[in-house]
Amino acid sequence: MIEFWLKLWQLTWPYKSRLVLGVICSVLSGMADSVVLLTVAIVARAVFPGEAKLPFKVPHWVADLYLSSQNWVVRHSTSEFAIVSLVSLIPLVMLVRGLVNYLSSYLMNWVGIRAICDLRSRLFEHLLN
Is 46:19 a contact under the CB 8 Å cutoff? Predict the structure, then answer.
């Protein structure tokens, strides 16, 4: 099985920069959903003041970080401009999430298609010779 992965790695090696960028975008894409949830929770707490609690279960250190950021946002969001700026974070985070998802899909598909084309050309050359 390792031999298969090594041969596959050789096919993708010429496209390593796009492959690495695609993997990075895939990791960021996986984290983007959590960032959207946290952004909505922070904005909701600033717009609708009340008890600061997380809507889902997270590790203790994340909850502490969330509560400290919530307190900082509530203290600094006294003007209407600050509230509007804070609410505009939701579409901005969604835009970044969509961009990262697109780049992840595009780059990984691009590398896959190029590797398959290289494999087909090797096979065709082998059959001709």
Answer: no
